[in-house]
Amino acid sequence: MTARPFVRASTASASIHGLPDPAREPEFYAGVTAKRGMAWVVDAFITFVFCVLALPFTAFTALFWWPVLWLIVGFLYRWTTLASGSATWGMRLMAIQLRDRDGDRLDAGTALLHVLGYTVSMALFPVQLVSIALMIGLGRGQGLTDLALGTAAINRPV
User: Fold this and answer.
1) Which of 77, 128, 132, 139 has the CB geometry, 3.0–4.6 Å to 22, for a possible disulfide?
2) Per residue in 81-90, pLDDT tens?
3) What parts of the sequence cross the membrane (predicted)?
């Protein structure tokens, strides 16, 4: 079952799908790059809290492999939240969502690929810098993973 795509108020037909054009509908992209940055900080804090909560279940041995725990917890957190609502909790707080090339919410497979791309870009810091530069410079604010998958973050439609 796929989520229903959003319909923009400026369209005459409910059958028009796809990502909004930043030139014709800039309100969907206004401030999204900064909101993604703030959402990332919130998501990092949430990941930290989940890791701390998981510590007792590892008999505190996770202190010795903290980066691995962070990677696993962060990956699962991002994947489950993107697959269930097309946004992490930080993104929801900032009122943004990821949409696929058809304007639909992300399904579990696309969410998995998006998180995998994010994880690779975080592991290879220069790739993350290029991704951030693209988000700042492109009209849709897309990073490398977004460009590869055809996804974009937009202000959440009302």
Assistant:
1) 139
2) 999 999 999 9
3) 40-62, 68-90, 111-136
